[in-house]
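We emphasize that the prediction below concerns an isolated chain of 234 residues; any contacts that depend on oligomerization or on bound cofactors are therefore not represented. The input was used exactly as deposited, without trimming of termini.
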Amino acid sequence: MIRRILALLALIAAALMLAPLVLGVPSDGPLPDVAARYVSEGPEALGAPNLVTSVIVTYRGLDTLGEVAVLFAATAAVGLLLSSKEDGPDVGVPERRASEILETGGGFLFPLILLFGTYLFLHGHLTPGGGFQGGVVIATGFLLVLLSNRMDELHHGVMAWVESLSGFLYISVALAGLVWAAGFLDPRFLPLGEYGRLASAGAIPVIYSLVGLKVGAELIGIIDGMRRKKGVAV
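Result of the prediction step, given as a token string:
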């Protein structure tokens, strides 16, 4: 009972702190100069209908690079913590067979989840989505099959290669924009193509695909590391 009261008080305190931020957002009025320039020049300059996510990986590409670096550091820290101590007695929940519904649903939904995650980062420049969202969806698909006991072990060598290669290619694409275009992570070193098509917006779809693969591989590594560690329940 006390825990529930403390949790409720914590939620109320968080709501009171966030309320001024939410209520203080202006509903109309002129945009700041930088935002107005993004809105007026961004679609033509980048060739992408989804201006929000396109700005994130181009004009604000260094922010995205920092977010990827933070996630990599978190993944490395989790791996270090889970491997720093020798396995002790198993104090976690005893392993049990997954239900028939979970096993059947995991096998049926897994390829659909992978397809949806791939769609999210391939179409991030056209529709709502992007590399981070697609990577998270792909990681949830692997979590589902691990919980349903349809996959005992992941091939860690493949996952490490996917993570490393996608990160290396992401930096390579960023440097290509610096050499052959106007700046770091400038996607216009590739043709912009026809507006609204999948193969358009220069290197933005490539950037999103690499980010999605790297984010997905890192999150899958965290999930599998926690699952294999004794005393840690996924």
